[in-house]
Amino acid sequence: MPPELRAAVVQDAGTERVLMLAWMDEEALRLTRETGEAHFYSRSRATLWHKGETSGNTLAVEELRDDCDGDAILLRVEQRGGAACHTGRRSCFFRRLDGDRWVVVGERVFDPDEVYRR
Amino acid sequence: MPPELRAAVVQDAGTERVLMLAWMDEEALRLTRETGEAHFYSRSRATLWHKGETSGNTLAVEELRDDCDGDAILLRVEQRGGAACHTGRRSCFFRRLDGDRWVVVGERVFDPDEVYRR
To answer: Which of residues 11-70 of B touch A (CB under 8 A)?
Structure first.
């Protein structure tokens, strides 16, 4: 991971739900500030990423917070389109530990095969 | 960063506030599951870390969630002692972006010079 990447925690400002964890470089932070919509850095694709550019599920940023040691950013957002996760769920954190098993608890809002088809 | 580290988002299960962003390796996750108290991996000290072992501000874990791509964990916790941040604030995310300036918005709950003195 490039040292300049920061963890970006995305929280719904209305429901307070934590939606996703993404990554930001300086360019992603600058574009987020300038446009008011969340931009991230994709580690797997090694490129800047405007969240929702394909799915339409953009994130309108209501508040940005920095943390004490400068390795994380908190984005409080209004979630447009209803689903932050590429699997079609509101939150990427849809598996809960129940004893020794991870159990799926999040309902799908959209079908990813419909939204991401080429 | 070792590839096996995951970002650990800590959220207060009562107030829903995001308290901090830390890092977990497999050992930190195992100890967290076994003890019910948050353990992390300190990147700066390159060692396992039981949150609150010095300050008494431990985090009792009510729920653990995994994310879609396996690079983050969400811990929903009960915050003991009132402050998650080593600066003495409830949350590490105590600076809010206001125009072009980061403004401190979090009040101190304790004085770190008192708590961490040797």
So the answer is: 11, 16-18, 20-21, 33, 63-69
Beta-carbon separation of B67 and A93 below 8 A: yes
Q: Are strands B59-66 and A101-104 parallel, antiparallel or unpaired?
A: unpaired
DSSP state of B106: P
- ipTM value: 0.90
Report residue B41 as tokens.
């991996």
- Structural tokens at position A17: 């739900």
Residue B95 at interface with chain A, using a CB cutoff of 8 Å: yes
Closest of B31, B32, B25, B21 to residue B1, by C-alpha:
B25
CB A90 within 8 A of CB A25: no
Length of chain A: 118
Q: Each residue of A38-76: pLDDT tens digit?
A: 999 999 999 999 999 988 899 999 999 999 988 999 999
| B92/A69 Cβ within 8 A | yes
- The predicted model scores a pTM of 0.91
Quote the CA–CA distance of A80 and A92 in Å, as a whole number: 15
Task: In whole angstroms, give the CA distance from residue B107 to residue A7.
Answer: 24
Whether B95 and A66 lie within 8 Å, measured CB to CB: yes
